[in-house]
Amino acid sequence: MVNRSGRIDAVLPAVVLALVVLGEVVSGRGQVVLGLTVMAPLVAATWLSRRATVAYGSAAFVVATLLGLYEQQYTSDTAVAQTVRMIAVVLAGVIAVGACDLRLRHEAHVARLSAEAAATRAAVRTGEMLQRALLGSPPQVPGMETAARYLPGEQGAQVGGDWYDAFPLGDGRIMLVIGDVAGHDAPAAATMAQTRGMVRALARSGHTSPAALLSTLDDVLGGLGLDTLVTVTIATLDVRGAGATAPLCWSNAGHLPPVLVRADGTARLLERTPERLLGASPEGSPRSEHAIELHRGDSVLFYTDGLVERRGMTLDDGTAWLVRALSRIGQEPLDRVCDGLLGALGTRGDDDIALLAVRLPR
Question: For the domain bounded by 136-359, which CATH number is listed?
Answer without folding.
Answer: 3.60.40.10
